[in-house]
Design goal:
Length: about 250
Amino acid sequence: MKVKQPEPFTFEAGERALLLLHGFTGHTADVRMLGRFLQRHHYTSHAPILRGHGQTPEQLLNVKPDEWWEDVLAGYNHLKSLGYEQIAVAGLSLGGVLGLKLAYSKKVTAVISMCAPMYFDNDQQLTTGFKLFAKQYKQLERKDEQTIQQEITKMLHNTPHLFQDMGPYIESVRQQIDFIYTPTMVVQARHDEMINPHSANVIFENVQSETKQLNWYEKSGHVITLDKERDQLHEDILTFLQLINWAN
């Protein structure tokens, strides 16, 4: 069975724009509802697909973090090419890490990190999300359980470099978040099953923004943009965007 591949989206609505970044193993569906919500409230949004995502697990493992950064810059420049000068960034998980990097690398009006890891407790945390994604993808391909487990084990054995690269890459971002002075909203799900939720405190305590807030969501898991408190998350993001100074 062929799996339909997702696509980037751009929802134009107003002069203020947000770059929306999905999570590791995810794609634009992670942030589509948020994009539509922002559009209804007169904010433009653009969501790229990070290299290797929205494709097979094998393709995802052949990508390097620097290539994701290139995709983020391309998404940012896409909004600039459309004429947008007031740009904020919001990212989920890996997208949150990349959004923080963008906040200290480029001119952005604000940054919203959602369940973004700043470190990992152990090597297993790095691969947990990938294993779940790979299993679900191969189930869609109608493969049996034994074949799925064999293929996942082989993939992880033969292509370990991505997971070896991700830890240091995230650490390099953590070491530089104290260069962030733009308004910052840190979002964290209390029942995050993929990362250590303390990462949210690390971000909040180290960014140098005068305007910053930390929002905890007590009933949600890692993919908070699709979880049971997503409507409240949308409203909280809107409130934050309305409070900040977009003129800077």
